[in-house]
Amino acid sequence: MSDTQQLxxxxxxxxxxxxxxxxxxxxxxxxxxxxxxxxxxxxxSTSTKLWYDxxxxxxxxxxxxxxxxxxxxxxxxxxxxxxRGPLFVAATVGPMAIFETIAITRIILYLLRK
Length: 114
Prior knowledge:
Elements (H helix, E strand, L loop, with lengths): L2 H25 L20 H28 L10 H28 L1
Helix pairs in contact: 1-2, 1-3, 2-3
């Protein structure tokens, strides 16, 4: 495996791990209402129950979107990535952009239903 393939894999796996570390405490409802961490919009500050409900859903979405990002990281070891050209960018930024956008869209749709 080339250095570029290793870097692409490492970036995806690191982002996946970060999303899991962010998502787990939210999904387990361990984060109380605060100003720094979680989904902080006016709607979530109206009640503690709503805060935990929305943030638990968001945490689960972050954990779910981390799975295909991790798989993309593992797939990078089989891709013919040489140099830091378009394929490198597509292999690193692409999965993050696609799956995080899906997660955020699902969170927004969930908020609109609440």
